[in-house]
Amino acid sequence: MDSSINIAVVNTVKERCRVCFTCVRECPAKAIRIMDGQAEVMPERCIGCGNCVRVCSQNAKQVRDCTASARLLLQEDTPVAALVAPSFPAEFAECDYTEFIGMLRALGFTYVHEVAFGADLVARGYKRLLENTPGSRYIATTCPAIVAYVERYHPELVPSLAPIVSPMVAMARVVKQLHGPDVHCIFVGPCIAKKGEMLSPELPREIDATLAFSELRHLFYAASISPEKTIPSEFDPPFSGQGMLFPISGGMLQAANLPEDLMSGEIVAADGREPFVGAIREFQSSDVDVTLLEVLACEGCISGPGITNPAPLFRRRSLVSRYARRRVSETDYEQWRKEMERHEDVCLTRQFQEHDQRYTLPSEEEINKALWTMNKLGPEDHLNCGACGYDTCREHAIAICKGLAETEMCLPYTIEQLKRAVGDLALSNNQLQETQQALMHSEKLASMGQLAAGIAHELNNPLGVVLMYSHLLKRELADSERLGKDLTTIAEQADRCKKIVAGLLHFARQNKVLRQQVKLMEVVQSGFKGSPAPANIRLEIRDQMKNPIVDIDRDQITQVILNLVNNAFDAMGDEEGQLIVTLLDKEDKVTIEVRDTGPGIPDDIVKKVFEPFFTTKSIGKGTGLGLSITYGIVKMHNGDISLKTNCDPAKGPTGTTFRVVLPRHGHG
Ligand code: ADP
Predict the structure, then answer these.
(1) What topology does CATH give the domain 1-64?
(2) Helix 554-572 to helix 626-636 angle, to the nearest 10 degrees?
């Protein structure tokens, strides 16, 4: 492999690349790799057509800059010749061609030559080649991007590449014949593939530098050279003939007097990205019976990436043909023929080499794997939308297998991922809100707990004293019915206070969970021992657990069950009722359901039941602490408590079900 094919003609300016994949789509050689979300031109695959440069709206594709080396050459004592591509009228439309030549001379060029004369020689070479090798099929080699494409992607066709140099090289050989072998040659044109051609090992040191028109404009600007400040001048002879038409599609055929005969289909011209790829493919499959295929990577050289004139294609085309008309009318054909004869001995032959860059196709298994990662599970998922830069999902998958593309380039896949991420985010946002609420609640409980602990501690002893003395006095004043009654009231109220204090003490305790492995059923049963069901209530305990063991604070969960059960008893009162306690489990969580057939809880009350000190029970009966303590305990166990209730007999049997879900091992 020679070094020239590894020289990057185009680079990506990473900071500018917005990763739109347009360059991937437009690259006929698929020489652009997307890695870590960045586009990168692979020099060994690049054919220098410059499509990526043209289509990048962000100017993120940078062409190899030759202005510095051209400047150095122009400063040397050795004479330098400018080889001007015949498309220059399409670029420098603002001035007369003689002014343009004057500007080149002002820049320091010793000679200014027309590549169009080289094109005349090349055209003659083609005519002779076709005449001398009847029956052979050729692909024209005037466009270096086409040559690079065939060498890399259709290496079997290398023998079909017409063994003739490009007009640029033909002209360089003429110039060296005219001015000696040491003269430096700088090509000036619309093409960036010339930068690759110039380095081709088959053309040693024929061209010293290549300047795109855009680069030449920079040099003019930097040297303050403008048409009005320069002395108009003529090209150095030899002057060209029909070669001036080369930059227009089919121009070479006209120059060589080889008309594109579409009827017999023997000579075919094709230009532009898609037509050239198709034409070469068809040429290979022998579907087209052609003798000569004239293909250009751009829509004529007048569309080359080095052109900066924004005028539409046909305007640029007419600029070239108008110039050609003017020059042709002034051409001394006798003189031209003499020059052609004089340069009869200029060698126009060259060889080409295979630089096979084709990939071996990945296995079907690998391709399918890549497709699956993009959620393309069946043919119906292959949208082939082309947003990734590849024509089909399969081509994209192959590129992924080859390390050229990434899964995220698939737009439908990325949108789906994004939707999923938004969904997940909403979910975790909800969870966050719930956790925040629970945190606020438990913070509230914690501070209440501290306060409660203080008050309970202070009240417990004096209450004990009040109770003790009330009972002592009651015994001593047993005869006095009135005083005895009063003392009973004092004792009852003091008892109530003790209950409240006991409730407050739970607040103080619930911040610590002392987990131990227990059988949940045993906890439930011990709860009912402390609070047996009254006669009017049918109690049913349904143990549906597969694994009875849970990691919980036994006392606290007993308290939870007691609170729920007592509330259910209270709700059902003296009415006939049923209480069903159900225990369920999954691998990582357990559920306790307490269902009663009481009157249910009205909507406006449901919201408040977990608030501390909220009660609907009469004074002396309820403290309003049961459910808030229950809530606190459940949350401290990383669990959840919820309720379902119906208080409207019209909607079905009334009643309430509290559902407590606890993690089996304490992790929520
Ligand atoms: P308390 O039982 O001391 O009133 P709780 O915090 O345990 O305090 O209960 C608060 C309120 O929730 C009760 O007063 C009652 O109105 C309502 N409640 C709780 N459980 C039930 C139930 N199973 N059926 C109907 N209402 C209930």
Answers:
(1) Alpha-Beta Plaits (3.30.70)
(2) 150
